[in-house]
Amino acid sequence: MASPEPRFIAVDWGTTRLRTSLVDAGGAVIAHARSDSGVQSVPPGGFPAALRAACAAWLEAYPALPVVMAGMVGSRNGWVEAPYLHCPCGLSEMAAQLTRIDGLERDAFVVPGVDVRWEDGSYDVMRGEETQVFGTGIDDGLICLPGTHSKWVEMAGGRMTRFASFITGELYAALSGSFVARLAEEPDAPEAGQTEATEAARAGGGLTRALFQARTRVLAGDMSPRAVRPFLSRLLIEAEMAGASELFGHPASVHLVASDPQLSVYRSGLERRGLQVSFVDPATATLAGLNRIISART
Amino acid sequence: MASPEPRFIAVDWGTTRLRTSLVDAGGAVIAHARSDSGVQSVPPGGFPAALRAACAAWLEAYPALPVVMAGMVGSRNGWVEAPYLHCPCGLSEMAAQLTRIDGLERDAFVVPGVDVRWEDGSYDVMRGEETQVFGTGIDDGLICLPGTHSKWVEMAGGRMTRFASFITGELYAALSGSFVARLAEEPDAPEAGQTEATEAARAGGGLTRALFQARTRVLAGDMSPRAVRPFLSRLLIEAEMAGASELFGHPASVHLVASDPQLSVYRSGLERRGLQVSFVDPATATLAGLNRIISART
């Protein structure tokens, strides 16, 4: 049986990680490698060497194979700055606005990030998530990508129409080391803090009131110290979901780009709100997105 | 002319500071001292010595003069734990529930903190602010005490009926060192970030969306890096005020216990909302509160 014929090298290059995949014409992964050579650890001018270190054998074995990259590699501190594509935008605009990288003796491209200006004056950006969004294959509906800066993306007719970021993960990290979390102990039960977070989110007074309950409910003996961190996490996710509903209305379903543990928490949160949930793993979505983008180009 | 006759020694003993005042029968301050011997820096069993170090001359000159203390000195990690008084409560309950301290060879008391259980399941506590609240002399209306954990207190018929905490100051400190504030430069203008914060607060999507605008509006060139920290501060204060409105309705006036720079920011925020603002300095409110409490007792 013949080896599968590779079609391109997919590069998912984020702030802290580098993932490379050898992908065949059907979009299947032939081989895969990952390292900690994230964009923040690459010295100026060091991107070609870092890529070669990550997949030297493939580059040598397939001298004409194109390389397609997504993520922070296209940011100001990356290999090249790939300008933002503006919402609304679809796969064809994305494929037409790839930023070419010279000097690799093969076709090499970086996928653009996407930005959006809202009528309300807000401005938002993404870099890396756009590839996952197109990798979902969702043409109409709402896509949620949980993370440090969770994104909620509205799709219509195959185009990204609007999106919004919520600093859920960043705020959780900042609060975990702050006073309100000082009584926290290691969580034990998977559902810890859920009832209390739902109650606090509904209580009125907004997020900055509800967050103080991470401390006071423990002082009162109403909540276990083991529930403090899950309470904070769930409360921030409740706030994110309420915010997304306010911006995007109440769809029948949401597509999640997530893996566990976030997948479980977001999934149960959405299902409690009566929404249908489908989902895909982020790494799978990135590969599918890169494959769709390169297919739209060629 | 005779020296004024002192009536008691007032002690405002917080986490990081100790303030002592010699107070006459009219509530006026005869002498004043302050140090950094906050509760957190006092070793176990070290409270009597720390108090003597702060006001040895007064203790010696007036061997029978009572000492009345408020603040974290009454917490679990303080001199004695002064149990919380429950809302609703007034000056008479407070005066009746002073916790006596033995071994000083004079009358010495700690004012209780106050807690509240809301019908919505929330639990809240204060320690130190209750003295300021009664020091305002406000019998009916809404009192706001900005801070690390801002308090909004509802008064009716001279009694504290309900109150809520908002972690405005804590969240500001946590976010100032976090990613969304990374583009920040030193603020220049006093009104920096106000327009953008008002716009972001109104934009919908909630606080965790609006906070991301501290970064994106600078990326877009819509906001100066000098406005980042004022933007964050004002946004959190907007959230606090919106939360307080949700809980306590829209009164005609609010009484602030604050000094600058917080006083100016809160005052202008409340006035923009069409509210009448009166205010008192926190140190003045504490002294007046201790004076009213000891007067209610004797």
Q: Would you mind describing this structure in some detail?
A:
The structure is a homodimer of 298-residue chains. The first copy, chain A, is built from 10 helices and 15 strands. Chain A has helices spanning 47-61, 91-96, 129-135, 168-176, 194-202, 207-210, 213-219, 228-248, 262-272, 282-297, and strands at residues 6-13, 18-24, 29-35, 67-70, 85-86, 89-90, 99-100, 108-110, 114-117, 123-126, 141-145, 150-156, 159-166, 253-257, 276-280. In chain A, helix 5 packs across helix 8 (228-248). The two termini of chain A are 28 Å apart. Chains A and B meet through strand 10, strand 13, helix 4, helix 5 and helix 6 of A and strand 10, strand 13, helix 4, helix 5 and helix 6 of B.
